């Protein structure tokens, strides 16, 4: 299953990497693609959507499912 999360506040490649690493730590995630231009993160796996949003917010960004 692929889940798309809207991520606001990313301004550079380091931001993308930070969000990607935060999402990869969530249980059930198998793959992550982050694109700051579209303000989206695509997450593959069986992770809980609430956990994904919380991981992004804990990394310092605003997220919506």
UniProtKB/TrEMBL annotation:
Record InterPro entries: HMA_dom, HMA_dom_sf
Domain HMA, chain residue ranges per copy: 1-64
PROSITE patterns linked to this entry: HMA_2
CDD domains membership: HMA
Molecular function via GO: metal ion binding
Record-linked Pfam families: HMA
SUPFAM superfamilies per UniProt: HMA, heavy metal-associated domain
Name this protein carries in UniProt: Heavy metal transporter
Organism: Halorubrum persicum
């Amino acid at each position: 299953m692929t889940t798309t999360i809207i991520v606001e506040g990313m301004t550079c490649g380091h931001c993308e990497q930070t969000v990607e690493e935060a999402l990869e730590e969530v249980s059930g995630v198998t793959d992550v693609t982050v694109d700051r231009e579209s303000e989206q993160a695509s997450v593959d796996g069986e992770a809980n959507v609430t956990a994904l949003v919380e991981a992004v917010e804990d990394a310092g960004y605003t997220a919506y499912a």
